[in-house]
Design a protein that fits this description.
heterodimer; A: mainly alpha; three-stranded antiparallel beta sheet; 11 helices; about 10% strand; B: Topoisomerase I, Chain A, domain 4; two-stranded antiparallel ribbon; 7 strands
Chain lengths: ~260, ~500
């Protein structure tokens, strides 16, 4: 096969990756391309090269999910938080963006509560809108408990230095507007938007209407969260705010006495 | 260190707490008093603003009283599992408003109640909460201002998708008049006060103290509920090794002490009620008895929940911990990402979360438009579509008659054969023989019919007033036949005599 044909096929495979709801099991051509990428190293190298050129990262190529790609920050395919927050809510202030992003991170954390779940390819998480909100709120409440004895209120003159958990905890959980709709700026409203968005992106699957919407995860979401988590972890490490652990998950959740004392 | 407490707390550092204290954060006690004051501000504010309401004249109402009633109503109606129904709360408060201004129309009472409720939720603000700004002088002599965010009533989602109300801790504290005190010690104080008051016969004060005790129990229940809920989500989010058992012990201790205290009080005030000399005192004592009974009921509720807590934890642990075998662990989203980022300042968190968001949400495909495509698209006339669409052709269906299993003439012959004389019953073997002579298929039909006769009941025939009924009776004689086997049934047409309850065979 000529180089041009190979390149065309590789680009076509990436094209499939940009349509996350397509699966190799449903499409003969897709399946053939995935099979080739898994067996032909030269072809795989071309796929990676094209992806890099477009500002994409190939996360995995499997028979189940097909090709999973993630965008880098400067990729034309990236969904930027500034746009997302503008698209879904008012203002576009930093505090607004943080609440939106926390809903996304909270959803991933609740979907994969244990470190092992994120590594387990067949693990399927199940999350609800209200559950995700309650989970993030609980984490905020724990932090609030921890600082109870100290005087840590936000300075009124420098609102940018307010901690993220305060911003989240301060927002209304839910509420009704005058015309009977649910309040979209409440944290449940924001979480609901995040989960609906992820479902639209083919990363979650809506299973029922219970508790504000119940979703299950897809293998694609797992790959995406793992990559995003790793990048964010590096970012936090560079700020010196998180720490490496041995991956057993024992000192993980941070609520036991030893961890609290060590903070 | 300029900004105390808003610095990202560095986990690898050994003694951040010491640093905070050394930075001289000010008079915490003073801060608490300022905050306590701030919590009551929304209530006073209602009275201040009632004159400004354009749509109605609210000046006759005592708004801060109504607000306290609202918080009372929500706190009392709020159950272990759900919150208070807003409509019920509005109803309760409207009744109070009616007492304040009996000559005003009931719709206005409703309106006032709703106004108070909405203001306590602070519907107008984006976060539906209150913010108070206060200043403190730090140890270095500088004066800095801080923000204190709080809510009084909170809207929470119910299991049925509706919105319910819950009072926040701040609201409960405003109600009992002590901000951020240790629950347990306040309880002891309340008990002592209650006992003293009853001993001295000051029943109206005793009533208030009993109510205070009840709020404390409700608070315990609320805390327990929150922790059990968290356990349901993730066992490890609640410390069941030390913290939770301690809390449960505390709660059990509380219940135990309350039981003793309230039973003692109950005996005491029942005495007072029965021996009271004035009607007013009798009434007060009777009310107090009711409140204490209600307290006891609340304690029982809490106790039941406490007893179930351990079992619920073990069930959740089984469900969550002992599921699938563990693969190699990678990243701990909760401890390594969520918690650290929550502790960051908004600006830093925004940057870090942006990197997560970009990678985790997938991709968006920007539309690429060629001008020529756009041009073609624009000049192409829209395809005409008929309003009603094509004609629907009714499918031509053939009716297929089911073929009878036996030829028609067989049924006529059967009727003829079974038209028996009531006086002359026949055996199945005889009928079979006769049938085979009449038609080759008739034998099977006779057997089917006779078996149906053997199974039939005669009540229906009696009810319909028939004169006779065809029956088949088994007298134990075996059937000798080359085609069928079984009993040689006696087939008879039995006459039904109206007087007789049962026809004779």
């Amino acid at each position: 096969m000529s180089t041009i044909d190979t390149t065309t096929d590789a680009a076509r495979l990436i094209g499939y990756g940009l349509r996350p709801k397509l699966l190799p099991t449903r499409d003969e051509e897709y399946r053939a391309l995935v099979a080739r990428a898994r067996t032909d190293d030269d072809f795989t190298a071309v796929v990676h090269a094209i992806a890099t050129g477009m500002g994409l990262v190939v996360l995995e190529i499997t028979d189940r999910t097909g090709i999973v790609v993630a965008a880098t920050e400067d990729s034309p395919f990236a969904i930027r938080m500034t746009e997302y927050a503008r698209r879904t809510s008012s203002e576009g202030k930093a505090s607004e963006r943080v609440v939106h992003a926390l809903a996304h991170l909270g959803a991933a954390t609740l979907a994969y509560p244990r470190p092992a779940d994120l590594a387990d390819e067949v693990y399927i998480g199940r999350i609800t809108t209200e559950g995700v909100d309650a989970f993030v709120r609980e984490a905020c409440a724990r932090l609030a408990d921890r600082v109870d004895d100290e005087h840590t209120d936000t300075s009124a003159t420098e609102p940018d230095l307010e901690t993220a958990w305060r911003v989240y905890a301060r927002k209304a959980r839910t509420g009704s507007t005058g015309d009977g709709r649910k309040l979209s700026t409440s944290t449940i409203g924001v979480t609901s938007k995040a989960l609906v968005f992820l479902a639209d992106q083919g990363l979650l699957v809506r299973t029922s209407e219970d508790r504000g919407g119940t979703y299950r995860t897809t293998p694609r979401y797992r790959a995406q969260v793992r990559e995003a988590g790793a990048v964010m972890f590096t970012e936090l490490l560079s700020l010196g705010i998180t720490e490496v652990n041995d991956g057993t998950g024992t000192i993980t959740v941070g609520w036991d006495t030893a961890t609290v004392n060590s903070l | 260190m300029e900004q105390v407490g808003v610095q990202p707390r560095i986990l690898s550092e050994a003694e951040p707490t010491v640093m905070l204290v050394a930075a001289g954060v000010v008079d915490v006690g003073f801060a608490q008093r300022v905050k306590a004051l701030a919590c009551t501000a929304p209530l006073h504010d209602l009275d201040g603003r009632k004159a400004q309401v354009q749509s109605a004249d609210f000046t006759v109402y005592q708004m801060s009283e109504l607000a306290l009633h609202t918080i009372d109503a929500v706190t009392l109606a709020m159950d272990f599992d759900t919150g208070a129904d807003p409509e019920r709360v509005v109803g309760d408060v409207a009744a109070q408003a009616a007492q304040q201004a009996p000559d005003r129309p009931p719709p206005e009472h409703q309106k006032v109640a709703r106004w108070v409720l909405e203001n306590l939720i602070n519907v107008g603000s984006a976060d539906r909460g209150f913010r108070a700004v206060y200043g403190l002088t730090a140890s270095d002599g500088g004066y800095r201002t801080y923000a204190f965010d709080f809510k009084l009533l909170e809207e929470v989602p119910g299991a049925d998708g509706e919105i319910y109300l819950r009072t926040t801790n701040e609201a409960v504290n405003v109600l009992v008049g002590a901000l951020e005190v240790d629950i347990e010690s306040a309880q002891i104080a309340a008990d002592l006060r209650l006992e003293t008051l009853i001993r001295r016969g000051r029943l109206s004060d005793a009533q208030a103290a009993a109510q205070t005790a009840r709020y404390r129990t409700i608070q315990y229940g609320e805390l327990l509920r929150q922790r059990l809920e968290a356990t349901g989500r993730d066992v490890r989010s609640v410390d069941w090794l030390t913290e939770m058992p301690e809390f449960l012990d505390e709660a059990v201790g509380h219940i135990e002490a309350r039981y003793k205290a309230e039973n003692a009080i109950l005996t005491n005030i029942t005495n007072i009620r029965d021996t009271a000399d004035t009607a007013d005192r009798k009434r007060q004592a009777a009310q107090l008895v009711e409140i204490v009974r209600e307290c006891l009921r609340r304690h029982e509720q809490l106790q039941a929940a406490v007893q179930l807590a351990g079992r619920r934890f073990r069930a959740e642990q089984d469900r969550q911990t002992f599921t699938a075998a563990r693969a190699g662990a990678t990243l701990d989203l909760h401890a390594q990402l969520l918690v650290p980022v929550l502790e960051l300042s908004v600006v830093a968190a925004d940057l870090v979360l942006a990197t997560y968001f970009v990678r985790s949400t997938g991709t968006v495909v920007p539309p690429a438009v060629r001008l020529s495509d756009l041009f073609c698209g624009l000049i192409t006339p829209p395809t005409e579509r008929e309003m009603l669409g094509g004609e629907v052709i009714a499918p031509d269906l053939d009716v297929i008659e089911p073929e009878p299993p036996f030829p028609d003439e067989c049924y006529e012959l059967l009727e003829e054969l079974l038209d028996l004389d009531p006086e002359a019953p026949r055996r199945l073997s005889g009928l079979l023989e006769a049938a085979r002579k009449m038609h080759p298929c008739l034998g099977s039909l006779v057997v089917i019919r006779v078996l149906a006769l053997a199974a039939q009941e005669i009540h229906a025939a009696v009810r319909h007033g028939a004169r006779d009924v065809l029956m088949a009776i088994d007298d134990g004689t075996p059937l000798e036949d080359h085609e069928f086997a079984g009993s040689d049934l006696i087939v008879a047409r039995a006459a039904l005599i109206p007087e007789a309850e049962e026809g004779a065979a």
